[in-house]
Design goal:
alpha/beta, Rossmann fold, seven-stranded parallel β-sheet, 20 helices
């Protein structure tokens, strides 16, 4: 019999379907895995080995799981690992990042889809990344004696206010979790105020700092440099995870500065794949040559010799998935999108790790603590509009020593924050080693030292 939550979800899904159809037909936004999401009809896991199910909602969370997956597989090679995602892009990146593992779409929180998915995967431990708190999924896992851990958890002031409105439900969900591993003490305190127990909490730092590359000479970045024919003497300005109208801001900046700085290159990496064509048209309308990553092979498609005479280097559009982490390694100057469009910002840790001179707008509430730390170290520039973006890029081009200084400060901050993966895995070990013989009983919570907030 459907629950009240099923009826609520059904109403929300019905109201959302017209928008999904519009985005699919008009904007080309791909949404897959409907049978798995709505019916829970995931591919059944074969064999009888123990299994850990790891979930990341989209691209950022999936990429952040890379070091965690590697560490778990190294420590527990006899276990199966299943990776789930909610979005189509997240699934594509998961398949690319972990080709040897099982991949599924995470079920919507309907009772039937949750039950069928759990029966198909038969997990012994479930690990949810960041803030995936679905009440019926967690309740069904608890009914089956499967411990559920939330890792790399965060709780922004905005999310905290929203969850607090339903504290009676939030408390019940949180108390059902075996472990809540969070990025910092502020988040831990908010979870406790919402109803979690001190003994469930573990402050680990963010695993995203461990998942980033710091070596610009890594194989993937060097392959991209060769493929795109970016020369060592050129200054590369990369606008990554951009949204409307940020691409236009960056193109205008490039047009304004390229005559004075002939070695300036522009690389644009839109946040959403359905906007690839729109951005390509935008570049062409400005009568700029365009080089699309999707059309490249391992052979060079554009020769540096064409930069002489009347021809100029093209604007590069990265219209592929899962490459931004490597693309950032090409950046001398980096603008992180979603920050001038009111979207809360995107991950600035990756370009900072490479030692780029990083800029972003004021809308960065998704990464408030990271922004505060980088700003306190004078390691980033915050630009409030297109004019300030142009001024900041010009400043870096006029003062290359400042590019080095900002980049060094940013990279040193990132490396100082690493270690979250090890702390997270250590927190998960009791559940992995004891599953399925021991459940996260109150006695188990109060006796284990790893989970105590007071011990941090």
């Amino acid at each position: 019999m459907p629950s009240l939550l099923d009826l609520l979800y059904g109403g929300l899904l019905t109201a959302w379907i017209p928008r999904a159809v519009y985005e699919s037909c008009v904007k080309g936004k791909s949404r897959g895995g409907w049978s798995q999401k709505i019916r829970g009809k995931v591919p059944a896991r074969q064999g009888t080995r123990r299994c850990i199910w790891l979930h990341g909602v989209s691209v950022g969370e999936i990429l952040a799981l890379r070091t965690l997956v590697s560490s778990i597989r190294k420590r527990f090679p006899e276990w199966d690992v299943v990776i789930s995602s909610t979005t189509t892009t997240g699934m594509e990146v998961a398949q690319k990042s972990f080709p040897e593992l099982n991949h599924i779409y995470f079920p919507f929180d309907f009772t039937w889809s949750v039950k069928r998915a759990l029966s198909g995967i038969r997990p012994d431990v479930i690990v949810l990344a960041e803030q995936e708190l679905w009440p019926q999924f967690i309740r069904e896992a608890e009914r089956r004696n499967v411990p559920v851990a939330l890792i790399n958890g965060r709780m922004s002031p905005r999310s905290f206010r929203q969850y607090r409105r339903f504290r009676w439900l939030t408390r019940k969900i949180l108390r059902s979790l075996a472990l809540i591993a969070v990025q910092n003490k502020d988040y831990a305190e908010r979870f406790v105020e919402l109803g979690a127990s001190d003994t469930q909490m573990l402050v680990t730092g963010s695993v995203k700092y461990d998942a980033v590359e710091t070596d610009r000479k890594n194989k993937r970045t060097e392959t991209l440099r060769k493929c795109l024919n970016i020369r060592s003497e050129e200054t590369v300005f990369i606008a990554g995870s951009t949204q409307d109208p940020e691409e236009q801001f960056c193109i205008d900046t490039y047009l304004k500065l390229r005559e004075r700085f002939s070695e300036l290159r522009l690389v644009i990496v839109p946040r959403h794949p359905e906007r690839f064509e729109e951005v390509a048209s935008m570049v062409q309308r400005m009568k700029l040559p365009l080089l699309r990553r999707s059309e490249m092979t391992s052979r060079n498609q554009w020769s540096p010799s064409e930069a002489s005479g009347a021809k100029q280097a093209p604007v590069i559009l990265i219209d592929t998935l899962g490459e931004l982490a490597s693309v950032w390694g090409l950046a001398d100057i980096a603008f992180v999108g979603g920050s001038l469009s009111g979207r809360g910002g995107q991950n600035m840790i990756e370009p900072a790790a490479y030692g780029a001179a990083v800029m972003f707008g004021p809308d960065t509430w998704n990464f408030r603590e990271t922004v505060e730390s980088l700003t306190a170290r004078d390691a980033v520039r915050v630009v409030k509009d297109k004019q300030e973006l142009q001024e900041a890029v010009a400043y870096f081009l006029d003062n290359p020593q400042e590019v080095v200084r900002y980049g060094k400060a940013a990279q040193e901050f990132v490396t100082s924050q690493q270690g979250g993966t090890t702390r997270t895995v250590n927190g998960l070990v009791p559940f992995i080693e004891d599953a399925p013989n021991r459940r996260h009983s109150p006695h188990f919570r109060t006796t284990r030292n790893a989970g105590s907030l007071a011990s941090q």
